[in-house]
Amino acid sequence: MLRSMAKIAVRLDVDNAANRIVEGFYCNSRHVASRLARRFQVLAYHKVSPDPHPFFEPDHPTAFEQHMRFLSRCYRVMPLMELVERNRRGDIPHRAVAITFDDGYRDNYEYAFPILKKYGIPATIFVATGSIDTGEPLWHDRIFDSFRYTRREHVSLRHIGLRDFSLETDQLRRHSLALVLTRAKELYGHSRCKFVEEVEKALKPNLPASLKHRMLTWQQIREMHQNGIVFGSHTVTHPVLSRIPRDEVVKELSESKRQLSEHLNTTVCAFAYPNGHSADYNDEVKTVLKETGYLCAVNCESGFNHVFSDPFEIRRGKPWHKEIELFRMAFFLQRHGLN
Questions:
Q1: Contact by Cβ (8 Å): 42, 305
Q2: Residue-number span of the structural domain to which 330 is assigned
Q3: Which of 302, 298, 291 is nearest to 312 (CA)?
Q4: Same domain, 155 and 47
Q5: Which site from 22, 23, 226, 238 is most exposed, i.e. has the minimal number of CB atoms within 10 Å?
Q6: What DSSP string describes 115-167?
Q7: pLDDT digits over 11-54, tens only?
Q8: For residues 44 and 300, is the Cβ–Cβ distance under 8 A?
Q9: Is the pTM of this model over 0.90?
Protein backbone atom coordinates (compact mmCIF):
# COMPACT_ATOMS: atom_id res chain seq x y z
CA MET A 1 0.00 0.00 0.00
CA LEU A 2 2.74 2.46 1.04
CA ARG A 3 4.84 1.53 -1.98
CA SER A 4 1.91 2.09 -4.34
CA MET A 5 1.12 5.47 -2.79
CA ALA A 6 4.79 6.51 -3.01
CA LYS A 7 4.98 5.54 -6.67
CA ILE A 8 1.87 7.53 -7.51
CA ALA A 9 3.14 10.55 -5.56
CA VAL A 10 6.48 10.46 -7.34
CA ARG A 11 4.92 9.97 -10.74
CA LEU A 12 2.84 13.11 -10.15
CA ASP A 13 5.78 14.93 -8.49
CA VAL A 14 3.56 15.54 -5.47
CA ASP A 15 6.43 15.38 -2.95
CA ASN A 16 8.42 18.02 -4.82
CA ALA A 17 5.46 20.35 -5.23
CA ALA A 18 4.41 19.95 -1.58
CA ASN A 19 7.96 20.55 -0.40
CA ARG A 20 8.24 23.83 -2.30
CA ILE A 21 4.98 25.04 -0.73
CA VAL A 22 5.84 23.99 2.82
CA GLU A 23 9.36 25.47 2.60
CA GLY A 24 7.78 28.87 2.01
CA PHE A 25 6.44 28.88 5.58
CA TYR A 26 9.87 28.42 7.18
CA CYS A 27 12.00 31.38 8.20
CA ASN A 28 15.51 32.16 9.42
CA SER A 29 14.75 33.41 12.91
CA ARG A 30 15.56 32.50 16.50
CA HIS A 31 12.15 33.75 17.55
CA VAL A 32 9.82 31.31 15.84
CA ALA A 33 8.59 27.90 16.94
CA SER A 34 10.89 25.09 15.85
CA ARG A 35 8.25 23.75 13.46
CA LEU A 36 8.50 27.01 11.49
CA ALA A 37 12.30 27.37 11.51
CA ARG A 38 14.25 27.07 8.26
CA ARG A 39 15.96 23.70 8.07
CA PHE A 40 18.57 21.67 6.21
CA GLN A 41 19.33 17.98 5.85
CA VAL A 42 22.69 16.24 5.64
CA LEU A 43 22.84 12.81 4.05
CA ALA A 44 25.36 10.23 5.27
CA TYR A 45 26.68 7.55 2.92
CA HIS A 46 29.43 5.00 3.47
CA LYS A 47 29.95 2.63 0.55
CA VAL A 48 28.66 2.98 -3.01
CA SER A 49 29.26 -0.33 -4.72
CA PRO A 50 27.56 -3.30 -6.43
CA ASP A 51 29.15 -5.61 -3.84
CA PRO A 52 26.30 -7.48 -2.08
CA HIS A 53 27.83 -7.27 1.40
CA PRO A 54 25.56 -9.22 3.77
CA PHE A 55 26.44 -7.25 6.92
CA PHE A 56 27.47 -3.77 5.72
CA GLU A 57 25.39 -3.27 2.60
CA PRO A 58 26.54 -0.51 0.24
CA ASP A 59 24.28 1.74 -1.79
CA HIS A 60 24.22 0.33 -5.29
CA PRO A 61 25.60 2.82 -7.85
CA THR A 62 22.30 2.76 -9.76
CA ALA A 63 20.33 3.70 -6.63
CA PHE A 64 22.94 6.31 -5.68
CA GLU A 65 22.62 7.96 -9.09
CA GLN A 66 18.84 8.04 -8.69
CA HIS A 67 19.30 9.80 -5.35
CA MET A 68 21.67 12.37 -6.85
CA ARG A 69 19.46 13.00 -9.89
CA PHE A 70 16.46 13.59 -7.62
CA LEU A 71 18.33 15.85 -5.19
CA SER A 72 19.95 17.92 -7.94
CA ARG A 73 16.52 18.51 -9.53
CA CYS A 74 14.38 19.08 -6.45
CA TYR A 75 16.73 20.47 -3.78
CA ARG A 76 19.63 22.84 -3.44
CA VAL A 77 22.67 20.63 -2.77
CA MET A 78 25.36 22.73 -1.10
CA PRO A 79 28.88 22.25 0.29
CA LEU A 80 28.65 21.28 3.95
CA MET A 81 30.94 24.07 5.15
CA GLU A 82 28.87 26.70 3.31
CA LEU A 83 25.77 25.38 5.05
CA VAL A 84 27.56 25.48 8.41
CA GLU A 85 28.49 29.13 7.89
CA ARG A 86 25.03 30.09 6.68
CA ASN A 87 23.54 28.22 9.64
CA ARG A 88 25.71 30.37 11.94
CA ARG A 89 24.57 33.57 10.21
CA GLY A 90 20.92 32.57 10.13
CA ASP A 91 20.82 32.49 6.34
CA ILE A 92 19.78 28.96 5.36
CA PRO A 93 18.30 28.92 1.82
CA HIS A 94 15.20 27.05 0.77
CA ARG A 95 15.52 23.28 0.20
CA ALA A 96 19.14 23.10 1.44
CA VAL A 97 20.86 19.69 1.53
CA ALA A 98 24.47 18.49 1.89
CA ILE A 99 26.03 15.15 0.92
CA THR A 100 28.64 13.36 3.05
CA PHE A 101 30.49 10.04 3.14
CA ASP A 102 32.24 8.34 6.05
CA ASP A 103 35.38 6.20 6.44
CA GLY A 104 37.13 6.68 3.06
CA TYR A 105 36.27 3.65 0.95
CA ARG A 106 37.77 3.39 -2.52
CA ASP A 107 34.35 2.83 -4.06
CA ASN A 108 33.64 6.50 -3.24
CA TYR A 109 36.23 7.28 -5.92
CA GLU A 110 35.30 4.49 -8.32
CA TYR A 111 31.50 4.79 -8.26
CA ALA A 112 30.28 7.86 -6.36
CA PHE A 113 32.78 10.44 -7.63
CA PRO A 114 31.86 10.10 -11.34
CA ILE A 115 28.17 10.45 -10.47
CA LEU A 116 28.80 13.51 -8.31
CA LYS A 117 30.75 15.09 -11.19
CA LYS A 118 28.01 14.19 -13.67
CA TYR A 119 25.38 16.12 -11.68
CA GLY A 120 27.70 18.86 -10.41
CA ILE A 121 27.05 17.92 -6.78
CA PRO A 122 29.44 18.95 -3.99
CA ALA A 123 30.25 16.49 -1.21
CA THR A 124 32.37 16.03 1.89
CA ILE A 125 34.21 12.76 2.61
CA PHE A 126 35.30 12.05 6.18
CA VAL A 127 38.29 9.71 6.23
CA ALA A 128 39.94 7.68 8.97
CA THR A 129 43.52 8.50 7.99
CA GLY A 130 45.11 5.42 9.57
CA SER A 131 43.69 3.28 6.76
CA ILE A 132 44.79 5.50 3.85
CA ASP A 133 47.70 4.00 1.88
CA THR A 134 48.64 1.75 4.80
CA GLY A 135 46.99 -1.52 3.81
CA GLU A 136 45.39 -1.54 7.25
CA PRO A 137 41.61 -2.03 7.16
CA LEU A 138 39.34 -0.35 9.68
CA TRP A 139 38.83 -2.50 12.75
CA HIS A 140 35.11 -2.96 12.15
CA ASP A 141 35.77 -4.12 8.59
CA ARG A 142 38.08 -6.80 9.96
CA ILE A 143 35.23 -8.04 12.13
CA PHE A 144 32.75 -7.85 9.24
CA ASP A 145 35.21 -9.81 7.09
CA SER A 146 35.65 -12.46 9.75
CA PHE A 147 31.93 -13.18 9.86
CA ARG A 148 31.43 -12.82 6.11
CA TYR A 149 34.24 -15.13 5.00
CA THR A 150 34.41 -17.73 7.74
CA ARG A 151 33.44 -21.28 6.87
CA ARG A 152 32.88 -22.25 10.46
CA GLU A 153 29.39 -22.96 11.70
CA HIS A 154 30.25 -22.81 15.41
CA VAL A 155 32.83 -20.75 17.23
CA SER A 156 33.81 -20.14 20.85
CA LEU A 157 34.80 -16.64 21.96
CA ARG A 158 34.74 -17.37 25.68
CA HIS A 159 38.45 -16.59 25.94
CA ILE A 160 37.73 -12.92 25.11
CA GLY A 161 34.78 -12.51 27.42
CA LEU A 162 31.97 -13.53 25.11
CA ARG A 163 30.40 -16.98 24.58
CA ASP A 164 29.92 -19.80 22.10
CA PHE A 165 28.18 -18.79 18.89
CA SER A 166 26.30 -20.68 16.20
CA LEU A 167 26.87 -19.33 12.69
CA GLU A 168 24.71 -21.78 10.79
CA THR A 169 22.33 -19.17 9.33
CA ASP A 170 22.62 -15.52 8.23
CA GLN A 171 20.33 -14.52 11.09
CA LEU A 172 22.55 -16.22 13.66
CA ARG A 173 25.64 -14.64 12.11
CA ARG A 174 24.06 -11.19 12.28
CA HIS A 175 23.16 -11.67 15.93
CA SER A 176 26.64 -12.91 16.80
CA LEU A 177 28.28 -10.11 14.80
CA ALA A 178 26.25 -7.47 16.64
CA LEU A 179 27.44 -8.77 20.02
CA VAL A 180 31.07 -8.82 18.90
CA LEU A 181 30.88 -5.28 17.49
CA THR A 182 29.27 -4.01 20.69
CA ARG A 183 32.14 -5.42 22.71
CA ALA A 184 34.77 -4.04 20.31
CA LYS A 185 33.34 -0.52 20.56
CA GLU A 186 34.08 -0.55 24.28
CA LEU A 187 37.81 -0.97 23.58
CA TYR A 188 40.53 1.13 21.99
CA GLY A 189 44.18 0.99 21.11
CA HIS A 190 46.11 -2.21 21.83
CA SER A 191 43.17 -3.82 23.66
CA ARG A 192 40.92 -3.43 20.62
CA CYS A 193 43.62 -4.68 18.23
CA LYS A 194 44.15 -7.75 20.37
CA PHE A 195 40.40 -8.39 20.57
CA VAL A 196 40.01 -8.17 16.77
CA GLU A 197 42.99 -10.49 16.27
CA GLU A 198 41.41 -13.07 18.56
CA VAL A 199 38.13 -12.87 16.63
CA GLU A 200 40.02 -13.46 13.40
CA LYS A 201 41.93 -16.40 14.85
CA ALA A 202 38.72 -18.01 16.07
CA LEU A 203 36.74 -17.52 12.86
CA LYS A 204 39.59 -18.23 10.41
CA PRO A 205 38.11 -16.29 7.47
CA ASN A 206 39.25 -17.10 3.93
CA LEU A 207 39.85 -13.52 2.78
CA PRO A 208 39.94 -12.54 -0.93
CA ALA A 209 43.01 -10.59 -2.06
CA SER A 210 40.82 -7.73 -3.34
CA LEU A 211 40.15 -6.59 0.23
CA LYS A 212 43.65 -5.11 0.38
CA HIS A 213 42.50 -2.33 -1.94
CA ARG A 214 39.20 -1.30 -0.37
CA MET A 215 40.31 2.10 1.00
CA LEU A 216 41.14 5.34 -0.79
CA THR A 217 44.71 6.30 -1.61
CA TRP A 218 46.18 9.75 -1.04
CA GLN A 219 46.50 10.14 -4.81
CA GLN A 220 42.76 9.51 -5.25
CA ILE A 221 41.97 11.88 -2.39
CA ARG A 222 44.07 14.62 -3.97
CA GLU A 223 42.38 14.11 -7.34
CA MET A 224 38.91 14.38 -5.83
CA HIS A 225 39.96 17.39 -3.76
CA GLN A 226 41.21 19.11 -6.93
CA ASN A 227 37.77 18.49 -8.42
CA GLY A 228 35.85 20.12 -5.60
CA ILE A 229 35.33 17.29 -3.10
CA VAL A 230 36.03 18.44 0.46
CA PHE A 231 37.71 16.13 2.97
CA GLY A 232 37.18 16.09 6.70
CA SER A 233 38.51 14.09 9.61
CA HIS A 234 37.03 10.87 10.93
CA THR A 235 39.95 10.32 13.37
CA VAL A 236 42.97 8.11 12.69
CA THR A 237 41.77 4.71 13.97
CA HIS A 238 37.98 5.15 14.28
CA PRO A 239 37.54 4.80 18.06
CA VAL A 240 34.35 5.63 19.94
CA LEU A 241 35.55 8.94 21.37
CA SER A 242 33.41 8.98 24.52
CA ARG A 243 35.14 5.77 25.66
CA ILE A 244 38.80 6.78 25.39
CA PRO A 245 40.98 9.06 27.58
CA ARG A 246 41.23 12.75 26.79
CA ASP A 247 44.85 12.53 25.66
CA GLU A 248 43.85 9.85 23.13
CA VAL A 249 41.00 12.06 21.90
CA VAL A 250 43.47 14.90 21.37
CA LYS A 251 45.82 12.60 19.48
CA GLU A 252 43.07 11.19 17.22
CA LEU A 253 41.68 14.63 16.35
CA SER A 254 44.94 16.52 15.91
CA GLU A 255 46.86 13.82 14.02
CA SER A 256 44.11 13.13 11.50
CA LYS A 257 43.70 16.87 10.94
CA ARG A 258 47.45 17.27 10.44
CA GLN A 259 47.70 14.41 7.94
CA LEU A 260 44.81 15.68 5.83
CA SER A 261 46.08 19.27 5.92
CA GLU A 262 49.58 18.26 4.82
CA HIS A 263 48.46 15.95 2.01
CA LEU A 264 45.90 18.42 0.63
CA ASN A 265 47.68 21.66 1.48
CA THR A 266 44.50 23.10 2.92
CA THR A 267 42.84 23.80 6.24
CA VAL A 268 40.65 20.97 7.55
CA CYS A 269 37.65 22.25 9.50
CA ALA A 270 35.03 19.48 9.46
CA PHE A 271 34.79 16.34 11.55
CA ALA A 272 32.52 13.28 11.72
CA TYR A 273 32.11 11.41 15.01
CA PRO A 274 32.93 7.69 14.66
CA ASN A 275 29.80 5.60 15.19
CA GLY A 276 28.09 8.95 15.52
CA HIS A 277 25.30 8.44 18.04
CA SER A 278 24.69 10.66 21.03
CA ALA A 279 26.42 8.28 23.46
CA ASP A 280 29.55 8.15 21.26
CA TYR A 281 30.78 11.68 22.00
CA ASN A 282 30.33 14.22 24.79
CA ASP A 283 30.99 17.82 25.77
CA GLU A 284 34.65 17.12 26.43
CA VAL A 285 35.09 15.77 22.92
CA LYS A 286 33.38 18.87 21.53
CA THR A 287 35.73 21.05 23.58
CA VAL A 288 38.77 19.26 22.15
CA LEU A 289 37.39 19.68 18.64
CA LYS A 290 37.14 23.43 19.14
CA GLU A 291 40.60 23.62 20.72
CA THR A 292 42.04 21.66 17.78
CA GLY A 293 40.62 24.11 15.24
CA TYR A 294 37.55 22.35 13.88
CA LEU A 295 34.51 24.45 13.00
CA CYS A 296 31.84 21.76 12.86
CA ALA A 297 31.11 18.11 13.54
CA VAL A 298 28.44 15.80 12.17
CA ASN A 299 26.84 12.84 13.90
CA CYS A 300 24.62 9.96 12.78
CA GLU A 301 21.45 10.98 14.57
CA SER A 302 18.67 10.93 12.01
CA GLY A 303 16.57 14.00 11.31
CA PHE A 304 16.90 17.56 10.05
CA ASN A 305 18.73 20.61 11.42
CA HIS A 306 17.09 23.91 12.35
CA VAL A 307 18.73 27.22 11.53
CA PHE A 308 21.17 28.23 14.31
CA SER A 309 21.80 24.57 15.15
CA ASP A 310 24.89 23.76 17.21
CA PRO A 311 27.62 23.31 14.55
CA PHE A 312 29.10 20.45 16.60
CA GLU A 313 25.78 18.57 16.71
CA ILE A 314 24.80 18.45 13.05
CA ARG A 315 22.37 15.61 12.42
CA ARG A 316 22.77 13.29 9.47
CA GLY A 317 20.79 10.38 8.16
CA LYS A 318 19.38 8.85 5.06
CA PRO A 319 16.15 7.04 4.25
CA TRP A 320 17.38 3.46 3.89
CA HIS A 321 15.17 2.58 0.94
CA LYS A 322 16.46 1.00 -2.24
CA GLU A 323 13.50 2.14 -4.31
CA ILE A 324 13.67 5.79 -5.32
CA GLU A 325 9.93 6.29 -4.76
CA LEU A 326 10.19 5.23 -1.10
CA PHE A 327 13.43 7.18 -0.69
CA ARG A 328 11.77 10.36 -1.94
CA MET A 329 8.71 9.96 0.25
CA ALA A 330 10.76 9.17 3.37
CA PHE A 331 13.09 12.09 2.62
CA PHE A 332 10.14 14.48 2.44
CA LEU A 333 8.63 13.14 5.67
CA GLN A 334 11.95 13.35 7.49
CA ARG A 335 12.57 16.91 6.33
CA HIS A 336 9.30 18.11 7.80
CA GLY A 337 9.36 16.03 10.97
CA LEU A 338 6.49 13.82 9.87
CA ASN A 339 8.13 10.42 10.21
A1: yes
A2: 2-133+217-335
A3: 298
A4: no
A5: 226
A6: HHHHHT---EEEE-GGGSSS----HHHHHHHHHHH---SEEE-GGGT--EEE-
A7: 888 888 888 988 988 999 888 888 889 999 999 999 999 999 99
A8: yes
A9: yes
